[in-house]
Amino acid sequence: MRGRVILAAATFTQLAAGTVAPAEQDEALWTRLRGGGQVVMIRHAATEPGVGDPPGFRLDDCATQRNLSPAGREEARRLGAAFRARQVPIRRVLSSRWCRCLETAHLAFGTVEPWPPLDSFFGDRSREQTQTEAVRALIAQPPDGGNLILVTHQVNITAVTGLHASPGEIIVISPTGSDTVRVAGRLTPRPSSYGGFKFLAQQGGHETPRSVCASATPFSWAIPGYRCCARNLNSGTYFPLA
Question: What pTM did the predictor assign?
Fold first, then answer.
């Protein structure tokens, strides 16, 4: 049986009415995440053009799938940098076995566990109920010692929450201890949602364009002479990405 979905009134109703500014909504969600105990559903970052996957694709061969675009890889790195800059504790990162989800998780968080219930059922709706029930059972209880990250697909997120997520979008769920899903809010992949951070490379006190970091190793961001980081546009504080 499909459980209920509750959308936090202060996040959706007041925002739609114009009584809560998007920046206030975003900050409230980041504060909630810093406290831990939340479930974070993330749709994989932007991909190369296409719908679904090519005919005959295989899970064990990324070359046969629709994968992240260069912009999507950068989006995933920005997402992870925002979590680190905001000091959001992460307990566990689970992902669909599709390469675009695994890569999003790796680029954002550096570690990931493949979990079949998060796999896409876009091409096989017969698996929707079983997989959705497994996800709902997992997210019913709050995770200990941080937040639970689930990287998956639009169809899976819609089945659990009733919401349509954009690529790279974050849906924050507050566990209720039951099959009722309480959506606390969503963070879209725009600079203000990721906390007003500017991504750049710093050398000797001088800022250079963020594109300098593009050639760095995804996890170490190691560029001789440069320190790749994020700068909070409000406070001016620097946060290293490595």
Answer: 0.75
